[in-house]
């Protein structure tokens, strides 16, 4: 049953991220982010494919917790594993290189991975507009928008609703 799968996925992600906080001053629980990304896909973009919503819920588990791809495949299947793998940065690379690869590789991702990446960027940019993370200045926020814009250029042609909402945020910062 879809509802059950979705709740098992939220439960798994919540346990994995239980000790993590977002970078905002209030230290919002990290799990708010993957739940919010899945919610954007469902409510705002009208996506109802279970594997895409599950991948959204799990998208930062391997990158930011001890979770392995094998564990995700075993619990949620090959399709979910594959989308999560596509949106996971290689943490063995230096940060600058990881950022560069997101820009370069964006156009080669599958539609499912592009959807998760678009919603992830939309959530993070809204979060930056809501409040500036601890230790960040205006310039770092500007740089983040600029980099996110470059990634989103490579994700275009996937979902017009998400893309126009992102475009509004970029235009407000004179990007694009
Ligand atoms: P980080 O990757 O360090 O931080 C952004 C990431 O943090 C997001 O992608 C998001 O990832 C996560 N995140 C957690 N909490 C929040 C929140 N409240 N709002 C938004 N995102 C949150 O930043 P970058 O390395 O991308 O830095 C941005 C730019 O600044 C880069 O272009 C870089 O060149 C520059 N930079 C500047 C530095 C400086 O000191 N001036 C130092 C380093 C970079 P997730 O979806 O995975 O949660
Ligand atoms: Zn994310």
Provide a descriptive summary of the structure in words.
This protein is an all-alpha fold and 176 residues long. The protein has helices at 2-16, 32-44, 50-58, 61-64, 69-76, 78-86, 95-105, 111-130, 138-153, 160-172. Helix 2 (32-44) packs antiparallel against helix 3 (50-58) and helix 3 crosses helix 6. The N and C termini lie far apart (42 Å). The mean pLDDT is 98. It binds NADPH dihydro-nicotinamide-adenine-dinucleotide phosphate (NDP) and zinc ion. NADPH dihydro-nicotinamide-adenine-dinucleotide phosphate (NDP) is lined by residues 22-24, 33, 60, 95, 120, 124, 127-128, 133, 140, 143-144, 147.
List SSEs in N-to-C order.
Answer: HHHHHHHHHH
Helix share bin: 55-70%
Spatial shape: globular
Residue share in β-strands: under 5%
Mean pLDDT comes to 98
Which residues sit in consecutive blocks of at least 5 with pLDDT less than 50? none
Query: What is the first-to-last residue Cα distance?
Result: 42 Å
Largest sheet: none
What is the β-strand count? 0
Ligands in the structure?
A: NADPH dihydro-nicotinamide-adenine-dinucleotide phosphate, zinc ion
Q: Which structural class is indicated by helix and strand composition?
A: mainly alpha
Total DSSP helices: 10
If you compute it from the alpha carbons, what radius of gyration comes out, rounded to the nearest whole angstrom?
Answer: 16 Å
């Amino acid at each position: 049953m879809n509802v059950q799968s979705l709740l098992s996925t939220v439960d798994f992600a919540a346990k994995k991220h239980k000790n993590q906080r977002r970078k905002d001053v209030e230290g919002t629980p990290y799990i708010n982010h993957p739940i919010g990304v899945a919610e954007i896909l469902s409510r705002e973009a009208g996506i109802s494919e279970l594997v895409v919503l599950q991948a959204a819920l799990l998208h930062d588990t391997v990158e930011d917790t001890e979770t392995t791809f094998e564990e995700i495949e075993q619990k949620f299947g090959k399709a979910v594993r594959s989308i999560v793998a596509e949106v996971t940065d290689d943490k063995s690379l230096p940060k600058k290189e990881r950022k560069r690869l997101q820009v370069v590789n964006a156009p080669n991702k599958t539609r499912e991975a592009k959807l998760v990446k678009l919603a992830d960027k939309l959530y993070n940019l809204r979060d930056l507009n809501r409040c500036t993370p601890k230790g960040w200045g205006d310039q770092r926020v500007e740089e983040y928008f600029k980099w996110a814009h470059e990634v989103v250029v490579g994700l275009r042609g996937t979902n017009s609703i998400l893309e126009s909402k992102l475009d509004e945020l970029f235009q407000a910062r004179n990007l694009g």
